[in-house]
Structures are given as structure tokens and as C-alpha cells.
Amino acid sequence: MADKSSACEEESNVLTEVEAKALLRQYRIQTTAPMLATSAEQADQACKTFNRPVVMKVVSADVAHKARVGGVRVGIDPADASGIFEEIMSAVRAAEPNAKLEGVLIEEVVEGHLEVFIGARVDREYGSIVMLGRGGSGVEAGAPPVTALAPLSPESADGLLTQAFGTSADGVLDQTARSTLHRYLLAVAGAEGLLFREDISDLDINPLLVGEKEVVAVDAVAELLSPGERFGRLDADTVSQEKAGRVQRLQRMRALFEPEAIAFIGASTSPSKLGYRNIKNLVDFGFRGRVYPIHPKAAEICGVQAYPSIGDVPGPVDRAYIALSAAQVPQALEDCVKKGVDVVQVLSAGFSEWVPKGERGEPAEDPDAVLRAAIKGSGTRVVGPNCIGTFSSRARLAMGAARYCPTDSGSITFISQSGTFAGDVVRRAQALGLPVGQVLSCGNCLDLDLIDYLLFCEADTNTKLIAIYAESIRNAGLFFRLAAQSSKPIVIFRGGLTDQGGAAASSHTAALATDTVLWEAAVRASGVLQVGTLDDLLDVLVAFSGHDTLTGKRLAIFGSGGGVSVTSSDAAEQVDLELATLNSMTRSELEGFAGPGTSVSNPIDIPVWGLKRGDDFVLGEILDHLKADDGIDAIVAYVEMGTVMDFSDADEEGLAQLQAICDSILATATSGAAVSLVLRSTGDKVQDDFVRAQRPVFIRRGISLYSSTARAVRAIGRLRAMSRGVASRSVDIKNG
User: Fold this and answer.
1) Which residues pair with 149 in a beta bridge?
2) Cβ neighbour number for residue 182 with a 10 Å cutoff
3) S-S: 364 plus which of 113, 337, 348, 358, CB 3.0-4.6 Å?
């Protein structure tokens, strides 16, 4: 193959169908046995060897979609071969006048009841990918093929087949055809497949005809990979090498969230300026290290001694913030390197997100390159530019006003390319009582990128869950392959996803490999949980904070109000949860609480007046019966706060009743199914304030609290999906 590739590369980087099929046969993929005719006479002569109708199609490395330009004819009588040859050549010349035509391929018609497409590609951002689906000339217009990152394992190849065609029991593929396609997938995109052993950048096998006894590749196109692109295949060795190199770069990263001394370059004496507020926030939050304001004239800022430059600081500095104009940042970075600063966070904007233009409208220079030059060859790492700061509950690093920063140490780390969302999560974590311990606004990721932060969090003993807001990920294929090796749950809140695709792409695979398709395939392969809104992210963090993990899917719903139960059941189905069947003992125990309007089948609907015996609420008792049922994995209990308040003569009395309900729930057993509580407020300030006060109490008790049943159910389903992702990664890592 190497010699053939070299010879072809001089003329074209696309293999002809004859060459592509020869390559497939080397990997035990059955193909037709075509004959090439370069003239009408040769076509006539070749067809004398066939006793049945033939297929004739143009051979040209310059024509990707032959049928579209009249380059394919099916079911031709061999006696008509010479005339059809001329028709094909004329049609293609008219449609593609600049294409180099090698001739016409002639082969017998292959019978089959199903056309299948297998595509493979080395993508610039995602590395090696593989596609599988229904084939034929309309592959781009039909149901989209399923996509996966390569290399495939036998298990992932089987999963790909199930995604595309269902199980053998579904009847689309019998067991023999399924087994053959499984072998073909591994031959193309397995660890020892041609995508990793040959210099192939793009491959279309379309169609593979599935017959009664065989699966035959009827057409195939392959494009060659240039030597410089081989690294981009992202095989296991490449991923391992890249990981090792990045881990080495992160040796001085303790200062990211636990610095001992911070220099703030660009400090200000004006309370309205960022350079003043950030220092005040550090002081107010009680930063546990030393703070050095850097100001050319001021003697002190916020009661802290200031210095004219970082070089004038008497002791070591492991962390620095820079809040200067863009033009001043490179020199400040050089000063930090000389000082031996481990981590510098550039808050300033005005770099790759805002490129100054020259007189003719072209970029005047690459502003990011100037910053990279300032740290080149050093061990100093840069966060940003264009970000708002860092939060750490342990080190007392404030992000925003200290009064809005959580003070309890937490095990959730949030990395955000959006400063707005970074600040939101800090403030909402305090309001919700979430154990968010570390938040980083990472901005443009000029030096350290999301891959680096992922590896940092994986090694960080203070992080149990990794949450990320991403707008773009450089080298997304490497990111998700490393995410697939993580031992920790990962949730990504994604913004800015586009659906760029190539209608003019050189192959079906290239045209179908849009940003959306590849992103979703990568998420699926990695076991990462993806959410689409900040509320969804926070709900997942609440679920994790309350329950840590959830593997089962059997759900019980309990409360007062049939309509709420119905909508909750609908939400459960959407996130792959099922309503649990209560065992006979549970049903018998619940019958003791029955009264008019009661339903003790799941969802369990007990009117408010049935939730009280004498002066005591019995919600905790009911929950204990449900938690004792080993057929239940999770419980959502909901309380209609408005109804409770309606049964009270004053707000104070109603709040006392609600507190008694909450106390009853807090007294439930700690073992058994995970409990999520919904306090459904009518939206007035009295009820909302009550809910706000209860949230941290319930989270510390291991009970997640939500404002609606639908949000609670969706969060439970996502926690289960995230838990399953971690479990599947653990199995893959264990298997090598």
C-alpha cells in the first residue's frame, strides 16, 4: 500500500475505485471484481465474460458523486456496453469538464435487500471517526448515519450496529449479516483497522449490499492522508503521549486554586475600578495567603501595602492577576516570568476575541502570539485572557463580592469559558447550598485550555465532580478521548454549537460529518453528561450533591395532586426512568394512610388531609415505607406549599406547618432509595424565602430539593446518565 500511495500522491490524493476496493480486500472486506474499460471497444470486450446484466460507472478521482453527473448505469445488457460507455463519458465530461476520466468500471449486478453505508474519516478537530447507516445514492438525504469516535472496540462496534439497525430481533439484519458488518467495522476503524494502519484520511464504502449469504462492497472511494496529518488520527499511543506531555506542563498548578501569594497587577485606588474591587473582595473574603497590590504610586490599597512592580515584591509570588490595557499585558507577563510566578490569570480583554485591523482591513498582528512569546520556554502558565477571576472556598479566593461567595468547602469544580456563567454559579451555589468549591473563569484559553483543566481536575483531590461550560474546544477529539478515561463524573453545559457541514464536501462522510454530529458522537463515546441550560446544570449539581450517584431507573412519585403526578410521569419517560411497581408490603403499608381521593399505586397521590395524624405530619413515615421497598431506586416527594398555606389563618401558622412537614421528611432513614423533595411555591416572597432557607439543610441531609417535579425528575435521570457514564468508563479502563 505504501508504494501505491506514493505513486498516486504525485497525481492525486484520491484512490480510484479499483485501488480502494483492492485495499478493502486486504482487510477481508468482500468487494465486487470490477474490470476497467478505457474505450468503447474494451467495454464491449469485457462484457463478453458476463452472462447477466452489469453495472457501468465512471472511474475518476475527481468525481466524488458519480450518480449525480450521469456516471452510473445499472442493469445494462452486456450487448449494449459500448454505447453506454460513450453515453457515460459524454455525460460526465459535460458535468465535470475539468475531471480526469480513467474510463468506465464494469461489474456484474449484485443482488441484495439492504444498502449499507460505512464511512471513515480523520477529522481536523475530532480525529478518527466512523459512520454507519443506510446506504445508496441518497445517503445524505435519508436518515443520518450514526457516528462514533475511533478506534472502535468490539463492544462499541456492536453498539454502533444497534444504534443504526437495532438488534437482531428487530429483523433489519439477521445474525449473519450483523456479524459480517461487525467485522467490517473493526476492519475499517478498529485499533488494527485500515484507518490506523494505512494513510487514509477519508473513506466511503457505499453501498455495501446485504444479500442472503454475503455482504459485498459495491462501491468505494478513499482519499489519502498526508504524512503531516498522521498525528491527527488520535490512536491510543498518540493520546497517551499527548496526555503525558500535558500532565508534565501542569506540575506547578497548585497555585491555580490554592496560591500562597497573589500579586494584582493593575491595582487601583478607585473603588469603582476592577483593580480595587478584586483586591477588596480578596481581603473581605479572608484570602489565606498574602496579597500584593501592584500600583506605580499608591502606598496601600484596601489596607494592604502596594508595590510599584511585581519585581519589587519582597517574597515569592505563585499567582498573579493582570488587569491592564492589552498593550501593557505582554510586558507584565514577562515580569511575572522573571518573578517565577506559577499561574498568571489575564483578566484583560482585547486579544483574539478582538483583533485590531490594519489599514486594508486585515489583522494588524496576532495579539495572542505576543502573549505566547512572553511565556515561551518558561514554566509559567496563563489563564485567559478575557476572564473575570477565580473562586476557591478553601483558599478564600473570591469571585465577585465576598458576601455572595460560598464559605463551605465543596467537591464540585466548575470551569467556564464564560465569565457570566462562572459568576452565576458562584452566587447560585451560595443560594442553593451547593458544595461548589472551585470555579475558574478561563476565557480565551490562550495557553491552558479545557484539556489541561480536565486533566488538572482529574488529578485534583479536592474535585469529585467536574463541570464545564464550553463554547469551543480546541482539539475536541483529544478532549473527549481523555474524558473517556476519567474516573470522575463530568457534566458539560455547551453553548455556541453550530451545524457546519459540507454540501460541497468531497465525500458522503465529509458532508455528513457536521459539527453537531461529531460533537454528539464524542459526547456519547466519552460518557460525559451534556446539558443545555444553566438551570439544567444547577439541577444536576443539586442531584449530585444530594445523592452522589444513582444507577437504577425505578422511580416512585409521591405527593398531593394527580395532575402533578401525571406530568412527572411524562418527564420520567423522557429521561429513561420508569415508574416502579410497588411490592405488596409497601402497598399494604400505604393503605393505612388511605382516605377519600387517595391512590396508593405509583404515582402515589394522598390528599393533604391524609398526610397528618393528629398534630403530626406523616410524610416521613410514608417515605420510610417507600425507602424499604427494594424495587425502588429513587423517590420524588412533592409538597404543595400554597395548599398548606390555604389551610392556615396566617403566614406564620402556615410556615410552622411547612416546617413541621420538612422536619418529618428530614427524619426519614438514610438508607434506601434516594429522595428528592419538591417544595412547590406559588411564587410569593414568603414561600420563596422559606424554600431558600431549606435548600442547604436538605442537601446536607442527602436530600436534593427542587422547585418543580419535572425538574426533579429530569435531574434524577441526568444523574443516572452521568453515573452510568462513570461506570462505563471504569469498565473500559479496567479492560485496558
Assistant:
1) 129
2) 17
3) 358
Q: In this structure, are residues 370 and 330 in contact, taking their beta carbons and an 8 Å threshold?
A: yes
d(CA 508, CA 140): 7
In the chain, the largest separation of any two C-alpha atoms, in whole Å, equals 102
Establish how many alpha carbons lie within 13 A of residue 124's alpha carbon, considering only the half-sphere containing its beta carbon.
Answer: 4
Position 394: which residue type? R
pLDDT on residue 250:
97
Q: Are 406 and 700 in contact (CB under 8 A)?
A: no
| Angstrom distance (rounded) from CA 249 to CA 242 | 11
536, 714 contact by CB (below 8 A): yes
DSSP string, 625-688: HHHT-TT-SEEEEEEEHHHHHHTSSSHHHHHHHHHHHHHHHHTS-SSSSEEEEEEE--S-HHHH
Percentage of the residues of the chain whose pLDDT score is greater than 70: 92
Whether 6 and 225 have beta carbons less than 8 Å apart is answered as no
DSSP bridge pairs for 440: 390, 415
Angle at 271 between CA 266 and CA 276, to 5 degrees: 30
On whether the CB atoms of residues 67 and 119 are closer than 8 A, the answer is: no
Amino acid at residue number 206: N
CB of 221 closer than 8 Å to CB of 507: yes
Beta partners for 35? 106
**Cα–Cα distance, 366 to 351 (Å, whole number):** 8
User: How far is the C-alpha of 327 from the C-alpha of 70, rounded, in Å?
Assistant: 59
Q: Buried b vs exposed e over 664-680: b needs ≥16 C-beta within 10 Å?
A: bbeebeeebbbbbbbbb
**What distance in Å separates the CA atoms of residue 63 and residue 58, rounded to the nearest whole number?**
9
Written as nine digits, the cell of 479 is 478532549
Instruction: Give the helix/strand (H/E) hosting 176.
Output: helix 175-189
Say how far apart CA 261 and CA 280 lie, in whole Å: 15
Q: How many Å apart are CA 458 and CA 369, to the nearest integer?
A: 29
Predicted confidence band of residue 5 (pLDDT cuts 50, 70, 90): very low
Give pLDDT tens digits for 696-728: 999 999 999 999 999 999 999 999 999 999 988
Residue with cell 444497534: 162
Grid coordinates given for 87: 453515453
pLDDT tens-digit map of 388-438: 999 999 999 999 999 999 998 899 999 999 999 999 999 999 999 999 999
Task: Give the angle 502-503-506 at the CA atoms, nearest 5°.
Answer: 70
**Which residue do the cell numbers 476572564 mark?**
387
